[in-house]
Design goal:
423 residues, binds iron/sulfur cluster, single chain
């Protein structure tokens, strides 16, 4: 049996998602901010004012100093953060940078944008503050425009590609961090991957659409009857799932294309993290693995929230009741749901803790575990898909390891082995 590492409680926060603009210029139909159970965005100010940003920087600096952090990461987010415009964006970055400098805390800025407003004046500001840029793109024009549209219904693909061209130009290319692509089973996986590669992204995040056991993601159907009886693995380490695994099937095709490429085309975070976990390394993302959550969201009014993805669970799920004017960021660490998100294997339900893949899968994204009645102590609604994907990657890696150095596997890693490393 794999012994999942126990995570220490109350790890410090290291990443801060700042909602600097609470509205968006697109109306993507799958957006969890505007099309989920939680409608709290309606009550938020449109932009984060400088006075709020100053207090945000103070709280982050205070937290980083108290926990002796070597640095922090601030992600400008929304809505659409670039709706701030070049002037306000520069003002905000100046305030944040100055505030953290008072605490001598190094900061890395990044921005998550839909790419439509990557104009020359905004790119100049991002360059001055060395803000890494991630852009949401769903693949081909047809794939992207099916979901990512302007409020009047026009697709945004053309504008996004124009923004990506400006970002990819030699003078700004160093800012280009990568692409975020939400998977749609209606799209061919290889066409999608090829379309994403066109702008030569350093990294791609392939995101599973948000969903819970109550509101399953597209293509998974109603599995509520399985939530407490999900039993992914039998005693011999053989998968016992009977469900179809359309997301694993989709991702397997991309994995094989990416893994078999004669030279590295890009990084794909999900695959790299799963491979790291399979090889016994640490997994550093919230979507898989057992690493403690280290991310907090700060809204335009300074209220402190948990991960945005919790909005898919129920109205108010990310709320903490805390804000940067009255509370320190340490106050977040004491909250029940946050402690559960930080507690690694201890925060999982019995199905996951018995599962031989738990050290790699980690029960999936916290939000995707939700079922009314049982809360978050369930496997992810993607349990069958993640298990199938992990086993596929394990088989590929294991075959390569066996060919490269048969003695490395030493017979311990034969079929059905339940020891670490999983590969
Ligand atoms: S969610 Fe992951 S860890 Fe939990 S039972 Fe499923 S495969 Fe195993």
């Amino acid at each position: 049996m794999i012994s999942p590492p126990r995570s220490p409680l109350s790890s410090a926060l290291r990443q801060f998602v700042l909602k600097v603009h609470s509205r968006c210029n697109l109306d993507c139909d799958y957006c969890y901010v505007y099309h989920s159970a939680d409608t709290s965005w309606r009550d938020k100010p449109r932009i984060m004012e400088a006075a709020v940003a100053e207090q945000v920087a103070h709280r982050i600096g205070e937290h980083a100093r108290a926990h002796e952090l070597p640095g922090v990461r601030i992600v400008l987010h929304g809505g659409e953060p670039l709706l701030l415009g070049a002037g306000r964006l520069e003002e905000l970055l100046t305030v944040l940078g100055r505030g953290l400098a008072k605490w001598a805390v190094p900061v890395r800025f990044s921005v998550q944008t839909n790419g439509v407003l990557l104009t020359p004046d905004i790119l100049d500001v991002l360059h001055r503050y060395e803000v890494a840029v991630s852009v949401s793109l769903d693949g081909t024009r047809a794939a992207h425009d099916r979901h990512r549209r302007f409020p009047r219904g026009l697709g945004s693909h053309g504008q996004v590609m124009a923004g990506l061209a400006r970002l990819g130009a030699p003078e700004h290319r160093s800012l280009y961090a990568g692409l975020l692509c939400t998977i749609d089973l209606a799209n061919d996986p290889l066409d999608t991957y090829e379309a994403l590669l066109a702008s030569r992204p350093p990294r791609i995040d392939l995101l599973l659409p948000h969903g819970t056991w109550d509101v399953p993601p597209p293509g998974l159907g109603d599995r509520r009857h399985r939530v407490s009886s999900t039993a992914p693995v039998t005693a011999g380490g053989v998968m016992a799932h009977s469900e179809e695994t359309p997301y694993a099937d989709w991702l397997r095709r991309v994995f094989d294309r990416w893994y078999d490429a004669s030279e590295r085309e890009t990084g794909i975070r999900l695959f790299e993290e799963l491979m790291a976990g399979l090889l016994g390394g640490s997994v550093r993302t919230e979507s898989v693995g057992l690493a403690p959550a280290t991310l907090a969201v700060i809204e335009t009014d300074g209220s402190i929230e948990q991960s945005d993805s919790l909005k898919v669970a129920f109205e108010g799920a990310p709320e903490t009741g805390l804000d940067v004017f009255r509370n320190s960021l340490d106050d977040v660490l004491g909250q029940h749901l946050f402690r559960q998100r930080q507690s690694g294997a201890d925060g999982l339900g019995p199905t996951c803790t018995r599962c031989p893949l738990v050290a790699v899968c980690g029960g999936g994204l916290f939000a995707h575990r939700y079922a009314s009645g049982g809360g978050f102590r369930n496997p992810t609604v993607y349990c069958a898909d993640l298990a199938a994907l992990i086993l596929h990657i394990r088989a590929r890696v294991r075959a390569d390891l066996a060919m490269a150095a048969p003695d490395l596997t030493g017979g311990r890693l034969g079929p059905g082995s339940r020891e670490r490393p999983v590969a």
